Amino acid sequence: MNPANLTNSSVAPGARTQGQPDPAASPQTADQITVRPARPADVRSIAALVEPLAVRGILLAKDPVGYYEAVQEFLVAEDAAGEIVGCGALHVMWEDLAEVRTLAASDAWRGRGVGHRIVSGLIERAKVLGLRRVFCLTFEVDFFTRHGFEEIDSTPVDPDVYVELLRSADVGVAEFLDLARVKPNTLGNTRMLLTIEA
Q: How confident is the model at residue 69 (pLDDT cuts 50, 70, 90)?
């Protein structure tokens, strides 16, 4: 699969694949990581987390400038040794709407709760921002269902907001709108939405 045709907003908490380290072999758990806002110094680590998932066709790698431009959207998970072991971003699309993007964990940490900690942090960030809905485009339906996301078929915005969102050059916004030009990016993904209670 050509990574140029993949979505940049897919998320991959991921299952272990053959050859990955056994999570049970390490004494650290997700409770022992720190989830914090990303800094520009974290960009290389974020890119390194995304790269193997991009190769597998799960996420779309960005050029370094893309990560730097969006660094304020990211949370990172840091282990006790200070290594970045997970990341995820919350991209605001409208006054009450954002998207979870670029959710990734290192092979050694996949399946150990890092993704859950990051998504919980992104949802909290959405609440602080006063957002009412959070969108994701994912292969990991069960993972996001556990966080309260539900599958959607339509684009849940008013017609006037839809017209405004059409003006965005952002691929993730086009995926949210389910535009034909991004259909090749979204094949196999499920569109999901979390409604945050007031």
A: very high
Contact 119/173 with Cβ under 8 angstroms? no
Range of the domain at 73: 24-195
Rounded mean pLDDT, 83-108: 95
- How far is the C-alpha of 84 from the C-alpha of 147, rounded, in Å? 23
Compute the average pLDDT of residues 4-28: 44
Q: Does a structural domain hold residue 8?
A: no
Tell me if residue 151 falls in helix, strand or coil.
strand
Residue 73: CATH number of its domain:
3.40.630.30
List of residues 6+ apart from 112 with CB closer than 8 A: 23, 29, 30, 105
With beta carbons less than 8 A apart as the criterion, state whether 67 and 47 touch: yes
167: phi > 0 → left, psi -120 to 50 → alpha, else beta; which? Answer: alpha
